[in-house]
């Protein structure tokens, strides 16, 4: 049976969406992967773009509230931003909680290329962290 993992950030627009897509792509045979936000908004077009660059399609993912997952039998909750960790320090029913804060690429300043570069950097940091953290069970 697959372990259910829920990634949480504030808006469920970039970091948690990328983490969901990355874990599903890398270790989907071992994990059911979800993402949600404490104040959901929309999936960032830049997040979709940088994931597409590494052949991971997150266009069908949507921004969701953590409320949708309270009774979903989540095994592991991962907060990927400090604000989400503060807003949701304990997730009802989760057997395990992890925290790894990543920079918010949506607040990056500069040209479109500089902003996309920030999304790439965060994507790669998340990918490396997942590779080191979610080994095959």
Automatic annotation (TrEMBL):
SUPFAM superfamilies: Phosphotyrosine protein phosphatases I. Pfam families: LMWPc. InterPro entries: Ptyr_pPase (IPR023485), Ptyr_pPase_sf (IPR036196). Residues 3-136 form the Phosphotyrosine protein phosphatase I domain. Gene3D superfamilies: 3.40.50.2300. Transmembrane segments: none annotated. The keyword Transmembrane does not apply. The keyword Transmembrane does not apply. One of its GO terms (biological process) is response to arsenic-containing substance. Keywords: Arsenical resistance. This is Arsenate reductase ArsC. It comes from Pelotomaculum isophthalicicum JI.
């Amino acid at each position: 049976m697959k372990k259910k993992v829920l990634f949480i950030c504030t808006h469920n627009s970039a970091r948690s969406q990328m983490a969901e897509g990355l874990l599903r792509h890398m270790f989907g045979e071992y994990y059911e992967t979800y993402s949600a936000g404490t104040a959901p908004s929309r999936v960032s077009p830049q997040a979709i773009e940088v994931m597409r660059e590494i052949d991971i399609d997150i266009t069908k993912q949507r921004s969701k509230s953590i409320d949708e997952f309270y009774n979903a039998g989540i095994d592991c909750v991962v907060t990927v931003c400090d604000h989400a960790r503060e807003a949701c320090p304990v997730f009802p029913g989760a057997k395990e909680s992890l925290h790894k804060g990543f920079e918010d690429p949506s607040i990056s300043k500069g040209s479109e290329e500089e902003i996309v570069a920030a999304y790439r950097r965060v994507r790669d940091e998340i990918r490396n962290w997942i590779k080191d953290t979610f080994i095959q069970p």
